[in-house]
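Hey, quick one: can you model this chain's 3D structure?
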Amino acid sequence: MKANLDNITIVLHRPHFPENIGAAARSVKNMGIKHLIVVDPRDCDLARVLKMATHNAEDVVTEMEVFDDLKNALESFQYVVGTTARTGSHRQTVRNPRRLAEDLVNISQNNRVAILFGPEDRGFANKELQYCDVLVTIPTAGFASINLAQTVMILAYEIFLANTDEPNTIIPRLANKDELEGMYDHLKETLTKINFINPQNPEYWLTGFRRFFSRIGLRAREVKLIRGLCRQLDWYFEELLRSTGSVRE
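Sure thing. Here's the predicted structure for all 249 residues.
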């Protein structure tokens, strides 16, 4: 079984140069991927994009979607992969391209997958990587700076070739990012209200929950269950305040 390429989308976040968009479109076309999203590009001159994409990848450029905001661009996806050259204890699980591609064979059968690439000059900030379920880094011989289109090609190539003989491990449909972000907003509000997380920096304290739920892979009904728990906690907290005559600040 191979990856479902119809469920794979390449997402370029804040690319600087139209030529890089065009070269990326050409790379995904080479590897059978049809979907390209561009988020908040510095310059999206279609003439320059199409010139680099060449005639064969013109359909990818014509059908690509452009968004102003990363959160909105990702809301319909169930699984998001972030590409990075930087790793550390504060970043999620990291895969190499081949291992990632093997994982995506099963995930992509029932889930829309976004492969997310950051700006050419600086990559992603931690707050942008919060939307990612896993990170991938390309091993290099000491010099880690790779052209955007080359990075796209390496990931697309590995996904195109990946194969598995384990159909029983297909991942069911997961909650999409819109559903998950609604849950995280609700969790942040509830956990701040009951003083479980620091209100001065709630996103930092929520990071552990994001990583935990990403490893598990929540389905839509499980998201609803967690939000139901939050609503009950909210109700109980308000009742407690009323019964004690306390006033919430």
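One thing worth noting: The first helix runs from residue 18 to 30.
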